[in-house]
Amino acid sequence: MKSLVLVFLGGGIGSVVRYFLNITFNYMFSIFPLGTFLANILGSLLVGIIVGFLSKNQVLNDNLYLLFVIGFCGGFTTFSTFAMENQIYLKNGDYLFFFSYTLGTILLSILAVMLGLLLTKFY
Description:
Elements: H1 2-26, H2 34-56, H3 62-76, H4 79-92, H5 95-122
């Protein structure tokens, strides 16, 4: 039961932070879902930083992992929204946006996780 509460709390907070990113950036740049894009990249960076920090300091335990990685980062990142936005690009024939958004998100998310892990080696 404790595990569910930790995931629930982290996920709720992550979702609220993602919502603020979306209302801030998606409406400013209506042709490109920048808020979703940033949430996925920043969430990937945070996963790398959190896992790297917890591992480096030997405090990687189930509760912290559930709260921050599964809960917060899971609620913060937006793969289902990402998939829906890509489906709209395909439906509208916006192939340039589809490919740049898809490849940019995937590649930058992987690099962000790697950067997060690398950053924790120095701090």
